[in-house]
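Progress against Task 2.4 (sequence-to-structure conversion) is shown through the following example record, which the project officer requested during the mid-term review.
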Amino acid sequence: MLVKTIEHVLPQKLTPAWLADFTEKEHETLKDRLANLLPLSSGMN
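Structure tokens generated for the chain above:
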């Protein structure tokens, strides 16, 4: 049985590498938007 999950492209917690491209305010605004979420099966995650 495949388990389906929702994953974030822009991670929920920023690392220093992500902070080079996004401010904390931009991150807070964008992280839970539909365009940032990706449905995956457990095998692809």
